[in-house]
Amino acid sequence: MSSVSKKQAASNSVSLIGSMFQSGLYKPQQGRIVRQVTFLSIAVVALLVGADVSRMSYFDELFTGSSYAVFGLVAAVGVWFAYRIVNYPVFTDFLIAVEAEMKKVSWPAWPQLWAASQVVIFVIFSMAISLWVFDILWTKIFQIIGIR
Question: Phi first, then psi: what are they for 120, rounded to 5°?
Fold first, then answer.
C-alpha cells in the first residue's frame, strides 16, 4: 500500500470514529425510509446479539442480575452504533442513492407477480422431481454394478 492510500485509510477511520461521537444528523430529510429500515435491521441484530451474550453462563456467576446488565449494555451500544452508522456521511450517501434507485424500479402488478410465482414454484417442483428420479436411477445402477 502506498503512503497516500495509508494516509487516506487512516483519515477515513478517524472520520468514522469521529462521526460516531457527533450529535447531528447528516442530510436528515433524504433517504428516510431506507435509513429507518437499515437502523431497525442493525438494532434488531444488536438486540439479538445482546440476548445471546447475556445467556452465557459466566455472567450469572458475577452477581445476580448481571445477565440483564450485560444485555442492556450490549443492546445500548448496538442501538447507538446503528443510529450513528446510518448518519455516517459515506454510508448515508450510499443509502440515499439506494432509495433513489429503488424509486426507479417498475414493480409488477399483482397478476404478473402471481403468474411469475407460479412459474417459479412449478420449476422448483419439476427440478426436485427430476433430481429424485435421477437419484433413484443412479442408485439402481450402482446396486446392479455392485458399488453399493
Answer: -60, -45
